[in-house]
Design goal:
globular; 24% helix; 5-stranded antiparallel beta sheet; single chain; alpha+beta; 27% strand
Amino acid sequence: MNETIIFSDNAYPEAASKLSKGPGHLVGQAEKLRELGLDVNKKIPEKLISDSDLRFMKHLIYFMFILFVVALIASSCSTSLSYDSNTSRRPYDYESTSLHADVIPFFYDDTLSVFLKVNREELLYTREFDKAPFTANLELIFNSQKWLLTDTLSNNSPRWIRQRFDLNKSENELDKSWVQYTVKDLNRNSSQAAMKEVENIVAWSIQENWPINKGFIAIGSQIAIITDGNTTWEVNHVIPKNKLPAPPYSSYRNPLDTLKAKPHSTIEDSWTVLEGAQVFTSPDKNLSLVIHGMSPEFPTLKNVRHLIESVRYISTRSEFSALLSASNPKMALDEFWLSCGKSPDKARRLIKTYYARVEEANLSFSGLQEGWRTDRGMIHIIYGVPHRVRRDYWTEVWTYGEEGTSNTLTFRFKRRLHDLDNNRYRLERSITYRSSWDRMVTSWRNGRVQND
């Protein structure tokens, strides 16, 4: 190689910046949001709909939920698949929506609370006239109860808006089990809507004084397990081996399918998160919670070793071995991407696309392992966002290309029940995938892969 290009130390962490910054950060403003900082100026929650409207909407929600349950039962007993209506057939297209709020409904001490966490950089801030402050305006609906929240730009505010909402008691039993919510950015006229099951046990971050969504927690964090009336927990623990899936055309048995956690200790108060899976079980066995200790950088990759491991899908065995044993692994990784891109600009575009997909995979497919190490993560990274996804509880079918044509490519994933991972799917492998896989890997290695 005649020329060695060393990408900046920030090139790889910034590769997936479209995910960490979001598409809506302070459009049209000179300073970036992080430079300005924010303070939250929250309006007092207002009840904006009448009691009659509330009753009507509750009945409507209940009716919709019954239809949802019937459809779910029917789908679990048959092979029929339904489109994911909430994401317009592309549930793993992260950029299809500008909002990615965390919503955690939690019932504790006879109160149903909704914990909302929103990235300020995903909101659109505007102002009424030149010297007016920039503000974002959110409309929040939880089980028909509505609030308005206004966020005003100032100095020295954190990245996240965090707000707890205590819902009024409802006579509808459904409202105690599920929360149907909508988070709407009024300035942008974009929204996020879904239905979430109410939690009766959560992992609580002691540092942030906030519940943790999805159970992926940085190793070394201090947490407490919060629920009504229980203070003692039996802890089981296991560290999964970092094994990568085989290509879609190869036979494959995953040793994680039979992985079991072993007894570790008993706790009464706080817990320091360990690497791997931890299971907290009440003495009467009626309650349990699984968490996964992840690297502090999760869901992004910043450690050079991890950045190298993730290129195994497109590297040869000898290239991968050389990368792992290189005396200067950062320089070796730079040279690998430069050999794929043929020029610094193309190499940077490849890096951005590849590691953005790695982060997307971690956000959607993680469980016992980071999402990029799973079957769905592998296909997502190499092939990109599927054009269409059909799914029920047991099956996901991903389609690339126009259905009904000779260019259509379909992958089928089956759910694998596992005590430590409720997000586990296995690809139905076939030798017929060999040619398409080879073409896609060659495209990566020749720098011909485009953004999703």
